[in-house]
Amino acid sequence: QVQLVESGGGLVQPGGSLRLSCAASGSISHINAMGWYRQAPGKQRGLVAGITSDGSNTYSDSVKGRFTISRDNAKTTVYLQMNTLKPEDTAVYYCYAGTRVGLPGPYWGQGTQVTVSS
User: Cα(14)–Cα(84) distance, rounded to whole angstroms?
Assistant: First the structure.
């Protein structure tokens, strides 16, 4: 089992910044990727950014150049630095942890609300 605890959401004005954090605990060795999805009202959940165990990053086209995913050296906490936020970034952001083939998963955090509004 892997537990994920998110923090850092909130209300920010357009053009502002926020940083989300996601701390993993439990069967850390099972994780081979972590990242963030988001879901806006009436829309499907979609990938925002991800990072694999070897450090490879991926971003959705809508956030490239504005968002940066990173992690700590222990690979137990992943961060999402969000800059130049836009109203269309408003959503619930979910941390996820992908696991190695044959193991239980993926795992999801409880979600954190990000609202971009003036």
Answer: 7
Give the model confidence (pLDDT) of 30-71 as tens digits: 999 999 999 999 999 999 999 998 989 999 999 999 999 999
Residue 22: Cβ within 10 Å count? 25
Tell me the torsion sign for CA atoms 87, 68, 39, 18: negative
Residue 72 pLDDT level (bands cut at 50, 70, 90): confident
One-letter amino acid of 18 = L
Instruction: Find the length of the chain.
Output: 118
Radius of gyration of the chain (CA): 14
Average pLDDT value for residue range 91-117: 94
SS3 content of the chain, % helix, strand, coil (to 5): 5, 55, 40
Measured in degrees and rounded to the nearest 5, phi and psi for residue 111 equal 95, 145
